[in-house]
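Hi C.,

You asked whether I'd gotten around to modeling the 737-residue construct. I have! Everything is below, sequence then structure, no commentary in between.
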Amino acid sequence: MTRNVSPFIPQIRLYQDWLQQTRGLSFASYDDLWRWSVTDLDAFWQSIWDYFDLQSPTKHSAVLAVNRMPGASWFPGAQFNYVQQVFRHVEKADAAGLPALISHNEKSLAAGAPARQLSWPELRRQVASLALHLKAQGVQPGDRVAAYLPNIPEAMVAFLAVVSIGGVWSICAPDMGTHAVLDRFQQIEPKVLIACDGVSYGGRDFDRTAVLDELRAALPSVQHVIVHGNLDATKIIADCVRLTWATARNDAETAAFEPIWLPFDHPLWIVYSSGTTGLPKPIVHGHGGTVIVALALKTLHNDIGCSYAANSFGERYHWYSSTGWVMWNAQMSGLLNGTTCCIYDGNPGGSKDKPDWTTLWRFGAQLGVSFFGAGAAFFANCMKAGVDLAACGDLSSVRALGTTGSPLSEEAQRWGTAQFQKLKRGGSSTQPGPQDWLCQTAGAAAPSGGFDPHAVGERGGGVHGAGPPQASTAPSGGSDPHAVGERGGDIWWCNISGGTDFAGAFIGGNRELPQVPGEMQCRLLGCAVEAWNEAGEPVIDAVGELVCSQPIPSMPLYFWGDEGNKRYLSSYFDMYPNVWRHGDWLKVTPSGSCIIYGRSDATINRHGLRMGTSELYSAVEALPEVIDSMVVDLEYLGRDSYMPLFVVLREGEALDEAMRVKLNNAIKTALSPRFVPNDIFQVPEIPRTLSGKKQELPIKKLLLGQPLDKVVNRDAMANPACLDWYVAFAAQRAGAA
C-alpha cells in the first residue's frame, strides 16, 4: 500500500498565503486573523467562497445581506447544490486512481476480507440512478425523505441522491427504538422511507424488519419504501423496492444526470437535537451555508486536504460515528473537498462478550487512514483497556487524531501521544511518517541543511481550489517561516467542539499552534465565540456560558413546523437576545486556547450523543411501576460522564434487581443502549417548581458541588422538603470522592 505522509504545508497556512497574495492581507498572529474573520464577516466569508472556488450560475448580490440571529441572509441570489460540489471532484480524483469511499463492517474486518471501495464515477452513477428513481416516484424539491440506515456507503449514496434533486434528507440510526424514531420522523411527514432490514453490532445481528413495519404503519405520509438488505441481500419485503435495484441503472440518462441548482438557503437536511422538554428539535440547515462552513472547518482547521492535490496526495479521512450523530454528516463532508472517506459500521470496542478496543485501530491501519477521528470516550476506553497501538498494524499513515463529543481528558491525550511516540521509536515507518511533523507556531527554524517544507519535490504544486502553486525547491541553506516544527514531534490532536445545532464547530484545531493536553487550540475562523459571565460580559481565564455573538452561514434556517420560530428562539436566544447561547461551559485561556467543561443546561451528553431528558422520561414513565423520574448528566470539569436516574415508584414497588433490569431495558428499547444510566436510585419525590417543571439543572449543580442556596430558590418550589434527600446524596458522593 502506498502510504501518505503529512501535508508538508498546513492547509491554514496555504489559505493565509493566498490571503496575502490576492487580498494583500497578512496577520502577525492567529488571534489577529481570527479577529479579522469575526469583525469583517463579508470579507472573510467571501474569501472562503473564492478560495474554494465555489460555483453558482447566478451571482450573489451580497455576502451577508441581513445580519441578525436568527434570520441572517447569506449570499442572496446565489444558487447551490451540495452534490454539485461533490461531483466536481469525480474526474480528477478518478484520474489519480483514488476512491471516494472505503468501508468495512464488523464481519468483513473480522474475516480479514478486503475493504469495499466505491470509485468516484461509481458513486456518481449510483447517485444518479437513485435520484432518477426518486424523481419517478414524484419526489419534488422540498419533499422529505427519511432514512433508517447504518453507517454504510449506501447511506451516503442515498443522501446525495435525495438532495441532488432538492429533496430534504433526514436519517436515524437503526440502534434507535421505534418510539424515538417516530418522535423525529412524524414531525417532518416524509414522502419516502429508505430503511434497512437489520444491523450487526457487537458481534450480533439485529433484525429490524418489525421496526420497519411499525414505522410504515405510523407514517401515513410515506408513499414509497426502499429497503437495503443489510443482513440478507436476497430478502424481499412486500411493497418495497430493493435499494440495489434502485441504484443499478446505467444508461445515457444516468450518465447525463446533473444535480439541480437551488437557492443558496434551500433546505438540505433535518437533524435533531433534544432539549429538556418536548419532542426532539427538527433543525433545518441549508445547502450553501452547510457547504461553505464544512469546507472552512474540514480544510483549514482539521487540516484535511484534497486527496488528489499534491500537497495532501492520498489523504484518507475517517471519523467514527453512527448515523444518529452529526459526525456522520461531518465524515461525509470530506467528499466536498475531494477527500477519500473511510467509514466503519460496527462497535469500535468489539463484542460485549469479548471487548476489543483495537478494532478501530486495526481498521485504520488496514485502510491507511491519515486523519483518525472518534469521540473522546473512545480514546478514554482505549486507555483504560490498556491498548497497545504497536499491536494494531501499521499506523504510520496516521498524522492526526480528531476528538469531539465530550471534553478529552489530559490523561487520555497524553496516553495517545505516548502511544504514537512509541510507534515512532519502534521504527514502524520506512519513510517520514505523518506524525513526524510537530504542530508548533509558525516561524520555527528549519533543521540544519536548509530543509524547506515547501520543497515537496515530485509532490510539488498547488492545493485544490484557488490557492497558489508552491515552490518545488527550497531556498538554499535557509529557513522557512512556514516550517511547522522539526521532524520527530508529537502526533497532532485536532480536538473540536461544536454541535448538531449548526452542523459545525465553534472551537477546534490549528496545525500551526502549540498543543496543550486537555485544551482545544483556538476559536474557529468566522465564529465570534466568547465565554460570558452572569452579567453578559466576556471573560478570559474564567468559566462562562459559550456564546456566539455573530451569525455563521450554517446556523439553522428554522425548525421544521416551528410556528413563529418560538422553539428556535427559546433554544438559543432565551438568555441573550440576538446572541447564540450554545449550552456549554467554556473557558478561553489568555493564549486563546479553549476548554469545554460540559453542558450548562440539563441536556444529556452520552458518548458524544445528545438526548433530551424528556425522551428518557417518556420511556421510563411508560412503565406502570414508575410514578415520576429525573435524570442528570454530571459531565463537567473534565469528569467522565456520570448519569444517575432517580425514580419514584408506586406504593409497594421496590427498586430490586428485576426493576433495574426493567428500567434499563425500557431505555434501551425506546432510545438506545447508549443512554442507560450509570446508577438508579429510588427517591421519595422529584423536586419540581411551582409550575410543575422538574428541577434538573439545580440538582445537577448541587451534585457538582455547588451550595444549595446558590442553585435553587425554595420559595419557587412546589415540594422544597424533598431537597433534603438530594443534599444528603450530594454529601455522600462528595465524601466518597
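If it helps when you're writing up: The two ends are 50 Å apart (CA to CA).

Thanks,
B.
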